[in-house]
Write a structure and sequence with these properties.
With about 200 residues, this protein is α/β, with parallel strands linked by helices. It is about 40% helix and about 10% strand.
């Protein structure tokens, strides 16, 4: 979203539109989030004192639990928590339901304790306004900024501008023989396969 919070943080909103998501689409959502992060790192004019993520859970359905790839989920959180230089300071889950509580219990093992403590759940937008100024929220969330559709269209255009850059990144490969110390074992780092259909959850 345009503008920064009083503490200098950038607000990012993630909202799905289609309940009929498959595994590939969910994985694409993780990738797009990181692509937007890459562009932001190159285009942020002023310093940012961290990120505030608002995750809209309005379309989350029980069927999604079996479509989430644990491997993709682990890779995403490793990137966010270990590699991404802008720290995630707040996460607000809006339109939360008991299903989201169950999903959060699945995700917990991938999160550091500090990150878990930064996540708040809101059944509606009223409580969200206590943390994020209305002038930084879209009209759909009771704010006074631009609409989510406007922001989405602007980001689609911006990502298209970076098409050549992203294509170049896809061709880059790390030479582990040049890494100081022990080479990274990616099987150990990302070694989770399958989906949550295979997990037994107490």
């Amino acid at each position: 979203m345009p503008g920064l919070t009083p503490s200098g943080r950038r607000v990012t909103i993630c909202r799905g539109l289609d309940k009929n998501l498959d595994t590939n689409q969910l994985n694409d959502a993780f990738k797009i989030a990181l692509m937007i992060g890459d562009v932001r790192l190159m285009e942020e004019i002023e310093g940012v004192a961290g990120d505030v993520y608002i995750l809209d859970a309005s379309i989350v359905a029980p069927s999604h639990l079996g479509k989430i790839s644990p491997s993709a989920l682990k890779k995403f959180f490793i990137c966010v928590q270990e590699a991404y230089p802008v720290k995630l300071k707040e996460v607000h889950v809006v339109n939360s339901t008991p299903l989201i509580d169950a999903l959060f219990n699945i995700i917990k093992p991938f999160l550091k304790e500090k990150m878990r403590n930064r996540i708040r759940f809101h059944a509606d937008f009223t409580a969200l306004h206590e943390y994020v100024p209305k002038e930084l929220l879209p009209v759909e969330y009771g704010g006074t900024s631009c609409s989510l559709n406007e922001v989405n269209n602007a980001w689609i255009k911006k990502l298209e501008e970076y098409k050549d850059w992203f294509n170049k990144q896809d061709s880059l490969i790390a030479n582990e023989s040049l890494r100081p110390g022990k080479p990274t074992n990616y099987d150990e780092l990302f070694g989770i396969d399958g989906s949550f259909r295979q997990l037994s959850i107490d």
